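Researcher: We're teaching a course module on how sequence relates to structure. For the next exercise, students receive a sequence and then see the predicted structure as tokens, so they can try to spot secondary structure elements on their own. Here is the exercise chain.
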Amino acid sequence: MTTTRLLIVTAVAWLIAAALLIWMMQLAGMNPVFLIDNLGILSTLLAGLSVLGAVLAVVGALTGSRPMALIGAGAAVGWSVLGAAYVEMIVASVVQSMGGSVSLRVTAVSHAEALLVLLIGLTGALVGLGALYLRRR
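Model: And here is the predicted structure for the students to work with:
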């Protein structure tokens, strides 16, 4: 029951983040290749740690270890939330130093970067929780 609820919450969060990412990319007028090529070093590192958490979740689900799968899914989401929060902190710092009045079109690229990092972790958690759900059925 808990796995089903976590899966539903993760799927809804994934859909919301994907919709916001598409909106930010259209607002900034950029394509996905530009976004991926211009990820910051720390964002890339935290996205990579999210992928490692996702691998842990999938391995835990496939071996039947529910705690390992849940820890991996939590790690994937946790690292990605940390990466997204870091990018948003940088955006807030830059906006504050520019006087506080900056258009959303200007900051859309950075918001899209934060959403991409978040989506990487949510995707990993979704795959891990989905594998765990299918394994227990």
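Model: If you want an answer key for the exercise: Helices lie at 2-28, 32-37, 41-63, 66-97, 104-136. The mean pLDDT is 92.
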